[in-house]
Design brief:
There is one protein chain. The chain is an all-alpha fold. 81% of the residues lie in helices and 0% in strands. The chain is built from seven helices and no strands. Helix 5 packs across helix 6 and helix 6 crosses helix 7. The longest helix has 71 residues. The structure holds zinc ion. The site of zinc ion has 8 residues, from helix 2.
Amino acid sequence: MVGLIKAAKMGSGSSPCASCKLLRRRCVMDCIFAPYFPPDDPQRFALVHKLFGASNVSKLLQELPVNKRGDAVSSLVFEANTRIRDPVYGCVGAISLLQNQVSRLQMQLEQAQAELMSIQMQQHLQNEISDDKSLVLAATINLHQYLNDFAASTANLIIQDPLKTESLWT
Ligand SMILES: [Zn+2]
């Protein structure tokens, strides 16, 4: 029976927010906590309350424009969670861990970029060498052609006029 009444209250939206429930007070229409601490996640407010205190959180939210309050609550919840897990460093521990990861990854990225550049340079050099080889080959073929032509025309000259040809060589 009690459960049924409770369920009916939840359904009508009249159940107090997690904050008011924990603080055992009446959740008013314009409760500052209600939009950010729904009754289905009581742990969220319990953590923030334990670390910062409900009145401090309330003051903080009142000083902020409404559109910033959601983000503020998210960061308070994050800070409270990390402080529970790491009582010494809290979220600073998480931040410096991530900063270390970022700088390690940046170093790896720089190394990979340097390797890539050296591979590209080697490839470029190999292309140049093979370009040079084909130039030499083309020149050799041209030279062969030229010598053949020269031999052929010399032979023609000798056949046509042996005497004149002889004078060409002296
Ligand atoms: Zn409330």
